[in-house]
Amino acid sequence: MPLSISASEHRKATRALTILLGAMLVYVCSLEVVTRLAFPRINHVWRTIREDHLTAVLLHPSAASNSETMLMVGNSYLEVGVNRENLQQEIAPTFSIAYLPMSGTSYLDWYFGLRKLFMEGSRPAIVGVCLSTRDLISDATYGGSFAHTLMLRSDLLRVKKASHLDNTMTSDYFFDSLSSWMGHRAEIHNWLLRKAAPSVEKLTPYVRPEKQSLPPSDVILAKALARLRMLNQLAQRYGARFFLLIPPTMDVRDASNEIQAAAAKEGILVLLPFQHAELPGSVFLDGAHLNPQGAAIFTARLGPTLLQSLYQN
User: Fold this and answer.
1) Among 163, 176, 199, 260, which residue carries the largest CB count within 10 Å?
2) Which domain holds residue 12?
3) d(C-alpha 5, C-alpha 2), whole Å
4) What's the CATH code of the domain at 303?
5) 52 is a domain residue
6) Closest CA to 77 of 291, 243, 303, 301
């Protein structure tokens, strides 16, 4: 009799565990489906990124209008600092430009991101990367969104070494690369926060973290040049010309002039439409990013700068 009761209880426990695991599987699959299908429809930012990504992958050296294609990637400096339509008008019909900005990204995101875009078939004639000096020398990557959207899974160990990830973060990046839900959960959290508290962004000026001091110019220059060589070689491997665009900044010691001069000696194009601290503080949104007035000023100068610089190269 005790054996019969024990066997019955065992079957019940097994059935309960099976039901629990099945429910968990359904829950996880539901999250994945909702993230892949529904989230891009209700989040215009992520929908734009997906559309930009698809456009970037489909690029060929020449557009239908016979103009050279240009792919411009970068972070929020590109996203809010450049007016897409106005810049296209400035550089047409010589160039046809496509964009892929992702807020929070820096050098490593785009070195590995460009590797993935090229492997996916992107073949622009020109590749431009818009990063500040701080972003260029940063060893950070943009978490799960980077791992899912911009990282080749085969590059995981390279990313671990370059970004100094521990084993836990490396395993997170692996699962982030597989799952849309895992990769975008931070974005979903931020979107829900904005929906629940729409005025929270007004607090940004009051909780802005203090910027860390930049290292000495010689340290910046050595690291920046090495990374520019890698980006240039990557672009050349796939038949594209490369340039770095340094956005306007209020950093007075960002070594951008030194980077531009040193890169020019190696045949690498660095565009610096405005000198550091040249624009007044009134055209900056938060002390770093341009407001609409600043974006209009920057875009108006960027167009002629691109035409002149790329013609010479």
Assistant:
1) 176
2) 1-42
3) 5
4) 3.40.50.1110
5) yes
6) 291
Same domain, 13 and 51: no
Q: What is the mean pLDDT of each run of 10 residues along the chain (313 residues)?
A: 60 77 69 65 75 94 88 95 94 94 95 97 97 95 90 96 94 85 66 62 56 85 97 97 93 86 96 88 86 94 94 68
Give domain status of residue 69, yes or no: yes
Instruction: Report pTM.
Output: 0.84
CB half-sphere exposure, 36, CA atoms < 13 A: 10
Counting every residue written for the chain, the total comes to: 313
Distance CA(146)–CA(143), nearest Å, equals 6
Rounded-to-integer distance, Cα 261 and Cα 263, Å: 6
Helical (H) or strand (E) element with 99: strand 95-101
User: Is there a single domain that holds both residue 122 and residue 239?
Assistant: yes
CA dihedral in degrees (151, 153, 159, 161; nearest 10)? 180
